[in-house]
Amino acid sequence: MNPFRIGYVGFVPHPAFLETCAEDPRLEIVRVPLEMPLEEQIALLATCDGYYVMAARDELPLPLHVHRELLAKLPRLLMAASYGAGYDPLDPEACTEAGVILVNQSGGNARGVAEHAVGMMLACLKRMPDAHAAMKAGQARDRAALMGRELSGRTVGLVGCGHVGTLVSRMLRDAFGCKILATDPALNEAALAERGARKVDLPTLLAESDVVSLHCPLTRETRGMIGAAQFAAMKPGAVFVTTARGSIHDEAALLAALESGHIASAGLDVWEVEPPPVDHPLLHHPAVIASQHTAGVTHESRANITRIAALAFSDLAAGRLPPRIVNPEVLPRFRKRLAEEMGLTPGV
């Protein structure tokens, strides 16, 4: 049997991907250099059965995003797997039309992201960004002017309660005694109760939460979901945190809400453009703590997400359907392709 060829562009997030792939003799790895001319990059990818795709959209050149135009040039492709839980550079509908399964690494970096979100909540409530800015400016003489609030006993609203949201809910409930509200269209009241949260609609969550934290994917439905009206609907003095994806919240609307004082502070790990320009006003606002999409960038998370991605490719090379398929509607056509093109019949 011919090897199952997996192409990736530039780099892999952690050596564990290559190490795990090397344990499976059915897999062959093809590195596509970032500096290679585009036509040559696509030609290399066209020889591959799998494409391991950067999950951060601004790291990967747009012509190498998995959209209809690229898929038309990769007729051999059977599976595209994102580097992480997010899959911004991949179009699920286009993958389905092409008979390609799209896999993410949902849950693989959940603990790292959850810890980051809780850390940002603490930093915002304790006014660490304000204190840091005041100290740098030589204006930190009155400590009472930097009086903060404690996280314990607060109401926290989670927009999305998947792997990350569930861990955040448990950390806040168990360690801080927080009351957790959540909105998630994929989970009913009982499922959210098992995760320690009360199911509410978005308007209720915004009106009742001391802290609003985003944990949902960027989709057509969530793009621009948190704008001026939503920030205005939050409690005066609320804290806003996002470790989800840029473009879910409106950055200009958030800046206006911070400038007015309606939103007290914000913790931002994700941006419309990553990295944001150095003169971005949110980077310089004294009530903002910022990071560069690094919530899940830990040694532990990177090793985990790359290992499970490699195992997903191994599953497919062996004729097994991998877990974490984002577009399950593709399966009838995909099974036919797998049988016709590789002589394999998935066991699931």
From TrEMBL:
Any matching Pfam family: 2-Hacid_dh_C
Entries under CDD domains matching the protein: PGDH_4
Domain D-isomer specific 2-hydroxyacid dehydrogenase catalytic positions: 25-327
Keyword Metal-binding: no
Domain D-isomer specific 2-hydroxyacid dehydrogenase NAD-binding: 118-295
Matching SUPFAM superfamilies: Formate/glycerate dehydrogenase catalytic domain-like, NAD(P)-binding Rossmann-fold domains
Keywords: Oxidoreductase
Keyword Oxidoreductase included in the entry's annotation: yes
Domain of life: Bacteria
Assigned protein family: Belongs to the D-isomer specific 2-hydroxyacid dehydrogenase family.
Protein name: Hydroxyacid dehydrogenase
Source species of the chain: Sabulicella glaciei
